[in-house]
Amino acid sequence: MLYKNRYKCFLFCLFVVVNGVASGQEDIDFSYGYLPNWDLYLGDSNSEPSIETTDFVLNSELFEGRHSVNTINRFDANTDGQLKCMPEGELYSTRLGNSSSSNGSQSEKLVYTFVVDASNHQGSLYYKYAVVHQHPQNYTPDLKPTFKIQTFLNDVLLETYTSVDDLEFNVNQSSGSVPIMWKDWTSVSYDLSAYNIDDEIRLEFENYDCATGKYFGYAYLVAGYDEVDLSVADEPNDEGCTDSTACNYNETSTNDAANNLCVYPKGCETCSGATDGTGYLIDNDVDDDGFCDHDEVVGCLNMVACNFNVFATDMDDSSCVYAKGCESCSGAKNGTGYLIDNDVDDDGVCGGDEVPGCIDVLACNFNSMGTDSANESCIYPKVCESCSGATDGTGYLIDNDVDDNGVCDGDEVPGCTDVLACNFNSLGTDTDNRSCVYVKGCESCSGATDGTGYIIDNDTNDDGICDTVEFVACIDVVACNYNHQAHRYYIQGNLVNDSNNDFCLYAGSCDLCSGVTDGTGYVIDNDADDDGVCDKDEVAGCTDVVACNFNALATDLDEFCIYPRECDVCSGATDGTGFIIGNDTDHDGICNYDEVAGCTDALACNFNVLATDDLDKFCIYANECDQCSGENDGTGYVIDNDVDKDGICDEDELAECIDVVACNYNHQVHKEYVQTKSTAYTDNGFCIYAAKCDDCSGDLDGTGFVIDNDTDDDGVCDKDEVIGCTDAMACNYDSKPSTDTDMNLCTYPNKLCESCSGVNDGTGSVLRNDVDADGVCDKDEVIGCTDAVACNYDSRPTTDMSNNLCIYPNECDQCSGENDGSGFIVNNDSDSDGVCDKDEVIGCTDATACNYDAKPTTDTDNNLCIYSMNLFTVERYYETDSALSIIDNRPDNDCVCHLQDVLLSAVFFDLNSKEITHVNDKKLAIIAFYLKSNPTYKLRAIGYADVTSNSYYNYNLALDRAKVVVDVLSKKYGVNRCRLKVESSGEKYPLLILKNGDKSSKMNRRVQFSIEMDSSSL
Description:
Largest sheet: 6 strands, antiparallel
Structural class: mainly beta
Distance between the termini: 94 Å
Shape: flat
Strand content: 15-25%
Number of helices: 6
Number of strands: 44
């Protein structure tokens, strides 16, 4: 039977002996950092180990520093010294993982197979482990480090431990800024007497799933077993502890007078109770946290939790309660803390952030920032009233019936009620007739009776003569449109309205008159560009005197002028043919005429102190024995003081060779050198040596020479020469005399397509003539695609066996169908959006549009989109699926935007205009759709104008704008006219006033809307 004791038991394991004498604990191959009998598996940092290595040694180059030997009193720094690297009494451990690795901890698995035999059958197998990980809050689930222990009996899995199950955490311990979790030293032992001889117990320790860089996890490990000396197994066992207070007290023992073998409880420990020497320590502190099991207080130890218990000793993560959203904690730290709601009305806004006020968008005092409804305070408009427009809760009612006559100001028709006045208004309701305008002199009325009538001048030139009796003609004889008949008529005393010649046309300096005198004459323009130079006198060209292409005769076209820059000058011509002469060829900012070429490095022998054009690449320098001649004007040169380049200056040289292997070796000089050691005798630069085939003449007095044994200097000694191929059929045949009588040097064509290059000087070669090596000679090749599934498949014989020329359809495409190599791809995705034409769905692809459709569409220019008309920023509503992905912008599937958009929309107009633009028409189409979808709603159109005209004009223009909008809604889009009402606010209530007080912005030329849901309200 296999059992596991979760307590520190190595002394117990030491003394569990049956029929034998314990000989002590044995470390399992951890001593001195070696793991010779362990199997080691390695893997990537974020995967389980898979690569097997064997006989790991601490100083191995491949895994250096990963497994470390730790001695007594070594601490783990990541737990601030809380975790000792070694348990008490042990000498060595090994560590899986490396917290300092730049790639996180490498995944590792240590495997040890323990065989039960006669020497250990009555003992125990044990191991101890400790774990250190970064806190899981820093990981995604798939990257969390894991330490796992598995035990197998004869390849059958017996038990598994995983480190993430019971790690301890304390926010006060961390590695840098990252919290640390750890499990302190834990012991596990197995009673080997429960197994058979030759049973195999396999221990597997794994550390894996560590993320790269910023995460780590590792574990320490100690393992061993108890050996039993069977040679004294039959001797009586009278050894044992004689102290009855010890856990292993043996009442039959007589020889442990000093009680050195006794084991006593400490801390939370108690004794098992046996008195035959088999008693053992009972831990009573299962989690080794210093609190006895009976004193443990299970509770939440996370300080940020509301039910944090400062008195808790054992962490229960599942019991922790955390504040979220508006919630806060009650503050107790004894485990009785609870959540405080802080959002009583459950509207998602915390109590301290609530903004009371009216949140009904139809109310005049609507507050867009309001969060806590108090709609009993809402103020609504009645009859003629309207809202001021503010949305911050400060809005108020506007009367709109100033004279309290029961007719709304917007429905009032002010104006003149005098039928004789030009601006008479037959529909007028509010008249004071001070606004009436009447004709005088030549004037007449336009004739309208709706108040829009106006005065017609009828004396265009204000000469006191009504246009109806005027005779319009120019009577100035020098004018081009002079009317001879009118002039005579004028002289006779008749009225002519252009007596001051306002209608006369005169020729300028270059101009001519057309020549007729019947009043139809006109000016012939001879100065097309109006520059004072007649067209016939114009000369095109540059007229700027500082430009290089200045033309003294030019009168026009200055835009073609070209100018010199920096070192440049002009060529000098003044007839327009001038050009730029560049005087900085190397573009270094120094003009050519100022350049001085030369070496600019003061250390060089040819340094030129006056040089400006750096030619350092041509600088020459003195080396070792050399020196410079000394000039600084660029004429300096190198004086060579080591003629033979042997590193010994000429003045120290003695030109003799003392190298014994040289052909001109001088024995006498060498002898003198040995005696004097003078550097004058070390100039072997004069030595000459025999090459590969050569020999020395043999003289030793310095007169020796080289005997040349490679006459033709081809690197082959004369005695070994064999010259060329002599077979005229060979590709490398050499017609010159040769010695290759056995033709070993000859090369021949031996494959189907091969031939010779054709030269007869021995340099000929074999030509392959089958470039693609497909067995078809180049001259017989037929190029084409041989793959029948390709669009350009050629059923005729080809040699493109690799089919590099083939083209294939993708996704939506298909082939045209030809089999003669002319086939092509037919594109079935015309808009290249990845959706086949047959699968396209037509719709709006703009996510900001009201009718946005997330399904693939082909409306790439979004002509189908309908947009929100919001003038201001309001909340957008989306329709989503179960995964909260946006499907479209239509929560009610009505294809239109919402009430807020209608209320906050505006139709804008150009200056002095009441025309509806295309953009405005699209807005009105959406409003019409909204009204038709809500038949109980009524709409009021309120017109506005800017201040570019007088108040009377602005009032009427604003009213006309509102009427035009209502007409479009009614006549074009079919909204019942009874549901529509118009008002005019004239130039009042501008939306935009600039810093300088200007109110003429287009934002003020508009029509806005209000909705009433009560059918009796309008």
